[in-house]
């Protein structure tokens, strides 16, 4: 996992085409005006999901993990906590679904990562994560998740 400001992302994430395209999308001047939805950057190899929602309390976070994609989770507005745990520490409750590239589970112990505007987390397949958690109380956020295919990144 990498956590950083967008302005430092090019120096901290691998200098691959997939990440370069992801960070360029996040730097769009019209990013905050984009409607919610999916935006193709490089077909299914790199795409963005623009999301607006209200964060939720972290009573018992639901962790997710992916095999085919790396997540770049960027907060454009608001604050959010993402729970992090190594994948091996997660008790899987919903097995991996290859069509959706996700499995779900619970972690007895986890690390909170707080993101604010302009900050991002790069989450690899070995990084189980529980997004959408409230940083304090529930609040609205604008988040962009960019999915970078492992094939586009190698």
Write a concise keyword list for the protein shown above.
6-stranded antiparallel beta sheet; 12% helix; 154 residues; Jelly Rolls; mainly beta
Please characterize this protein's 3D structure.
This protein is mainly beta and 154 residues long. It has a single domain, classed as Sandwich (Jelly Rolls). The protein is 12% helix and 51% strand. It is built from 3 helices and 12 strands, in the order E-H-H-E-E-E-E-E-E-E-E-E-E-E-H. The strands form 3 sheets. Strands 1-10-5-12-3-2 form a 6-stranded antiparallel sheet. It has a 3-stranded antiparallel sheet with strand order 4-8-7, with no helix packed on it. The protein has a 3-stranded antiparallel sheet with strand order 9-6-11, with no helix packed on it. The longest helix is centred in the first third of the chain and has 10 residues. The protein is globular and about 40 Å long. The model has no long low-confidence stretch (mean pLDDT 95).
């Amino acid at each position: 996992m990498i956590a950083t400001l967008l302005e430092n992302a090019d120096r901290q994430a691998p200098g691959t085409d997939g990440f370069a395209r992801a960070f360029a999308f996040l730097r769009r001047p019209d990013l905050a005006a984009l409607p919610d939805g999916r935006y193709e950057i490089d077909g299914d190899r790199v795409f963005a999901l623009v999301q607006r929602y209200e964060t939720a309390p972290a009573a018992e976070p639901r962790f997710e993990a992916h095999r085919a994609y790396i997540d770049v989770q960027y907060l454009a507005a608001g604050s959010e906590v993402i729970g992090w745990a190594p994948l091996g520490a997660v008790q899987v409750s919903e097995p991996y679904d290859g069509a959706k590239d996700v499995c779900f589970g619970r972690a007895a112990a986890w690390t909170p990562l707080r993101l604010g505007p302009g900050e991002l987390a790069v989450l690899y397949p070995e990084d189980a994560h529980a997004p959408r958690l409230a940083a304090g109380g529930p609040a609205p956020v604008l988040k962009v998740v960019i999915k970078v295919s492992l094939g586009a990144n190698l």
